[in-house]
Amino acid sequence: MFVRVTGDDWTRLGPDAERVAQFIGHRAYLRMERGHCAALEVRRDPDGALDFFCTIYDLRPQICRDLARGSPECHGERALKRSETLNR
Description:
Elements: E1 4-5, H1 7-13, H2 17-20, E2 21-24, E3 27-30, E4 32-33, E5 36-37, E6 40-44, E7 50-54, H3 62-66, H4 72-86
Antiparallel strand pairs: 1-3, 2-3, 4-5, 6-7
């Protein structure tokens, strides 16, 4: 239950909604797989370094649009979510 998906987000996701989001009760959230968002594809570049690619970037939920990648707010959210996961 990390990234909330609103009705507008679900509509924007279109056919990808079922693949990357799920309902928990009456609220929708992005699915989590292997500790990260189901829409995140992790690739290795030719040098072996990890590269992260959002498969729904143009359709992403509003909260993902509001937090600029790599911003202090983004890092804060990631740290908070990581802490919540470790404390479960």
